[in-house]
Amino acid sequence: MTRYFIEVCYDGAEFGGFQIQKNHQTIQGELENAMQILFRQSIPLTGASRTDAGVHALQNFLHFDTELAISSKHIYNLNAILPNSIVIRNIYSVPSEAHSRFDAIKRSYIYKIHT
Length: 115
Hints:
Layout: E1 2-10, H1 27-39, E2 46-47, E3 57-66, H2 72-81, E4 86-94
Antiparallel strand pairs: 1-3, 1-4, 2-3
Helix pairs in contact: 1-2
């Protein structure tokens, strides 16, 4: 089994946040749905962090484990399935013990409030 990191960016304006929730469209939910459609199997994702409803991300990471061989063509295919507001920038294999949340070296946030 291989572990992969996914690098994403998104405009969260139309989403109820990052993490899967009942009765809300979420970033993680859309990503898992796109993977289900493409790979025809459920692949649970673990996110590095969560964002609230309406929050955007210039860069965020998730990881997953699979026996499937993931290649760069899958980035194109997944982006074709995803809403235009979510973009996968990269998918790459990492050591099996790598964790998108706990192995993060740095996190930064930018708060912009418009009135």
